[in-house]
Amino acid sequence: MEHKIEANPDYSILSVKVPAGEKLMVEASSMASMSSNMQMKTKLAGGLSRFLTQESIFINEFTAGESREAEISIAPGLNGDIQHHVLNGNEKFYLTGSCFLASESSVTYNTKFQGLAKGFFSGENFFLMEMSGVGSLWFNYYGGIFSVDVVGEYVVDTGHIVAFTEGLDYSISRIGGYKSLFFSGEGFVCKFTGQGKVWIQTKNSMALVSWADSFRRIEKKSKVNFD
Q1: pLDDT per residue as tens digits for the range 146-161
Q2: Which pLDDT band, with edges at 50, 70 and 90, does 204 fall under?
């Protein structure tokens, strides 16, 4: 499908031209505007599996009218970049939680269990989104997003991973010793091995939360006088 990404990487918005009679699957609450001949249905998608990956259990299905193509603008909830990837039917593509934005209806969705150790220590969800099929997929996350071609080994902070291709295996480990773990501001990293591509976000949403929390006003408890 013909598409255009504007205002990236800070406040990206995606415009997609949907051919007559075809469907586009869009994450709930992401539609910004659309042609008048576009029809929308809200469907359960993946059920519990989507909930486990921090996605909405509902997905919106937009269908262009039979007479002509329709256009839809999609705005993600987070301030950040939007990336496009085309699945060829012979690969699986993995997204971390809350990254899915839209896809053609020919793209299928499943979940992949990371394992208790990987899920807990990575700071990510215990489940990944496993995308397959044929067609366009759009995903987004906080900050800018860039890709790295991996051949052999590559290390990424767990809070900066967005997506990666099949062919890459990964393990979670500490960076430095225990002193580094508790005092350096760094913690666990993900070591990718094999051959493929990994997408990395330039910002870490949890770092933003920690920074903002330092300015949070804390109300002092009033003392009770029993005299």
Answers
A1: 999 999 999 998 889 9
A2: confident
Q: Is 220 part of any domain?
A: no
- Domain for residue 109, yes or no? yes
- Between CA 114 and CA 111 the distance in angstroms is 9
Beta sheet of 13-18, edge-to-edge order: 3-6, 13-18, 70-74, 31-34
11: amino acid identity, one letter: Y
**Cβ-Cβ contacts under 8 Å for 208 (sequence gap 6 or more):** 142
When divided into structural domains, the chain yields a total of 1
Q: Is residue 179 part of a domain?
A: yes
CA atoms of 212 and 47, how far apart (whole Å):
33
Query: CA 7, 51, 142 angle in degrees (round to 5)?
Result: 25
The three-point CA angle 15-136-72 to 5° equals 20
Around Cβ 128, how many Cβ atoms within 10 Å? Answer: 24
Q: Specify the CATH number for the domain of residue 58.
A: 3.60.160.10
Q: Does any domain span residue 224?
A: no
Task: Report yes or no on whether pTM surpasses 0.85.
Answer: no
pLDDT of residue 122: 42
For residue 188, the enclosing domain spans 3-213
Q: Two tokens at 17?
A: 């031209």
The DSSP 8-state label assigned to residue 96 in this structure reads -
pLDDT digits (tens, 9 = 90+) for 75-85: 998 889 999 99
